[in-house]
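Prompt: May I have another protein with tokenized structure?
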Amino acid sequence: MRRREFLTLIGGTATAWPLAAHSQQRDRMRLIGVLMSYAESDPVAQSEVAALRGGLAKLGWTEGSNVRIEVRWSAGDADKERTFAKELVDLRPDTILGQTTAVTHALARETRTIPIVFVNLSDPIGSGFAASLARPGANLTGFTDESNELGGKWVQLLKEIAPRTLRVTLLLNPASGAPLQFFMPSIQAAASSFGVEVSTASVHTKDEIEGVIAKQARDLGGGLIVMPAAFNVTNRDLIIALAARYSVPAIYFNGFFPKSGGLISYSADFAEQFRQATGYIDRILKGEKPSDLPVQASTKYQLVINLKTAKALGLTVPQALQASADEVIE
């Protein structure tokens, strides 16, 4: 073989190697882990995961072709969150989506290298997930759905729909919920301005829920704020039923509560965050680092009112409040 032909062959092969490597990197099957704080049987949770799958498909990630998605469901159980977080990390996925603050904590404890995209999370800076919203740093980024002013809004709306409210209890589950201190300043400020007393009730098992709600019914003017927590989502049918049985007006942190028979809710659009997360997952799979992707806060909030439940509680919903609602259930 002539020297020129030999050099041409070597040069062409050298050029082909990085192209082939790039093609293999692009075409290889990717693995995405998903850790949900809800139960697999929950139709709302299924719709959120469907939104995630649909968003990825639109970006060219076809399940079974170039991506595999492993979903785990913790149903608000802290032990399951830890177990499934380790299980997903051990699979060495290309990225993991974590839903809620508690789930993200479980994932962050297991890995500092695998990119994590979080959704439905409160206070990412205070929780230690991001150095700043613009430059989160480390291996986490995502979408936060809660403003710390939401707490005050819950007090205000509960007082508007149930004017006789004189005291409210915050129903929370510390193991699966958003950090209470994130919301308390605005809750206390609003409660003070409306002359409402505030107390907290930490529940750890479903058997403790009835006692909290029954206590609010013993004297006139009792109300309930159901705080963000996977535990409260898992037990939402029970909470709604007990609020109805004891005639306690309650405001919720997610629109599927009034859609299931609860009185009123004010929250971010949770499903939209799953759709938004697909964009970040796509960018990470294509080589971007989570530390370079800013944490995004929700800009759209939804007010949902169930008029049938209001009527059952003997409440007349002001027309102005109905007009401002994104959805009125009759």
About this structure: The chain has 13 helices and 13 strands. The CA atoms of residues 119 and 143 lie 5 Å apart. Residues 27-145+269-299 form a domain with the Rossmann fold fold (CATH 3.40.50.2300). Residues 1-25 have pLDDT under 50 and may be disordered.
